[in-house]
Design the sequence.
């Protein structure tokens, strides 16, 4: 079974600075998808970024980018120019390909932005 | 275009009772997944519905059951509620198999 581990329960960063959230995963599959979801106090889970395992290039979405290290099974999220609106729980998630959309989530990292 | 909607927002039930939660998927989406998120935890997959059939199930007892209607909306039913069923229940819909859109969730409290 696949597992996802987030070892940082809480992180904080000064506004406008850069922060990196860590995630490791375990799978025997060679093709899969990885995601970072944001869950603000409103509770709604919002997709931040996704990475296909077969792609060498790291995904980027505006201020959000990932560092995907397939051999190390590591998938970190970098947030540049942190903004107050970035404060939320961040979840790393894994999905197998093959017609299966089940997401396996980590336990999350609570990110606090310091004004 | 409305996103994924869920009802009710909050619900309080007593141990042993039964509850039904509802989800309307995003327009154009035909697949609905349900997740349980206990306090301080990541969401756990309950099951997924596609073409009105349960396509996959997570490690949840038979007390958890579901249904998908022809319009792709879905219900989650939980029988014989336990205190441990208290959680945020999230519905997610998708069409592109790997991009799931989540609703705001239903907060269930069992007393």
Sequence:
């Amino acid at each position: 079974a696949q597992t996802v581990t987030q070892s940082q329960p809480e992180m904080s960063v000064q506004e406008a600075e850069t922060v990196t959230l860590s995630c490791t995963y375990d799978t025997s599959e060679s093709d899969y998808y990885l995601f970072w979801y944001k869950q603000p106090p409103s509770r709604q889970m919002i997709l931040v970024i996704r990475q296909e395992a077969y792609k060498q290039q790291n995904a980027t979405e505006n201020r959000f980018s990932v560092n995907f290290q397939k051999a190390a099974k590591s998938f970190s999220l970098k947030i540049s120019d942190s903004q107050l609106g970035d404060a939320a729980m961040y979840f790393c998630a894994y999905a197998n390909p093959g017609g299966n959309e089940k997401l396996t989530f980590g336990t999350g990292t609570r990110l606090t932005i310091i004004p | 275009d409305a996103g994924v909607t869920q009802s009710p927002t909050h619900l309080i039930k007593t141990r042993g009772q039964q509850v039904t939660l509802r989800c309307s998927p995003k327009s154009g989406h035909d697949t609905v997944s349900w997740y349980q998120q206990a306090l301080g935890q990541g969401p756990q997959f309950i099951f997924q519905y596609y073409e009105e059939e349960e396509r996959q199930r997570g490690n949840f007892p038979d007390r958890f059951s579901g249904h998908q209607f022809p319009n792709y909306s879905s219900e989650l039913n939980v029988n014989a509620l336990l205190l441990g069923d208290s959680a945020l229940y999230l519905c997610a819909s998708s069409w592109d198999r790997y991009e799931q859109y989540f609703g705001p969730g239903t907060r269930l409290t069992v007393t």
